[in-house]
Every structure is written in structure tokens, then in C-alpha cells.
Amino acid sequence: MSPIVSLLTEALGAFLDGVPVAIPRLLSGLVFLGLAYVTVRIVLALVRSSIGRVYVGERELVGDLLVALGVSYALSETIEDAVAAIELRKTRIDTDAGDRIVMANREIEPRWTHDVPDAEAGSGTD
Q: Which residues cross the membrane (predicted)?
């Protein structure tokens, strides 16, 4: 067998071995998304009705803006957590030549160091 065929066979075998493990995770993810969707719709309906009583008529746009700001704030932390979980975080390093290097944190974190200035090093405090 050629190396390419054996590589493809091995990759396909690993993929098929992982499918039974992934199905429960996929189903639980779908259930979570469904419950989250229903919960968000109920909360939004409650918030809109209460804000609709306070901001009537033309001022309804203010109520919609408050709801949109609240949702975007809540989602920003969720998205930040999701990005951190799948390791899409990036480190940007400016070189002496003025170029910017962008690297995934997982590649650079092991090489991070903590430089302590001489004044702090001699004080004996951490």
C-alpha cells in the first residue's frame, strides 16, 4: 500500500472511531442550544413587555436598544469563553523592524516569561 492510501485509511479509521464518542456530545449540545433558545425567547418576551409598558409609542426604540445592549453584553462573555475554549486566542507581537507577528496562544504560552525589574527582585516580595 502506498503511504497516501495508508494515511487516508488511518485517518478514516480514526474518524469512524470518534463518531460514537461524538454523537452523545452532539445531541447534548443540540438539547442545550434548544433549551437556551427557548429560555432566551421567554426572557426577551418578558423584558419587552415590561419595557413596552415604560417606553410607549415612539420611545419603544429606546426599550429595544436597552434589550439589544443587554443581549450583546451577555453574549460578549459567552463568545469570549467559547473562543478561549477552542483556543482562537492570539498574541500580537511587534518586532523591532515594525512588523506584527500574530501567533496562537497555545504556541507561545509555554515560552512566556515573567521579567522582574531589578528593584523588585531585591525587595524579597512576590
A: 26-47
Residue range 35-62, pLDDT digits in tens: 988 988 898 888 778 777 777 766 767 7
Asked if the structure places residue 21 within a domain, the reply is yes
What domain range includes position 67?
3-87
Instruction: State CA 71 to chain mean position distance.
Output: 16
Closest Cα partner for 55 from 67, 44, 43, 72?
67
The beta-strand segments (E) located in the chain are: 90-94, 100-104
Would residue 120 count as lying in a domain?
no
- Residue with the bigger pLDDT between 34 and 115: it is 34
In a domain, 126, yes or no: no
What confidence score (pLDDT) does residue 125 get? 54
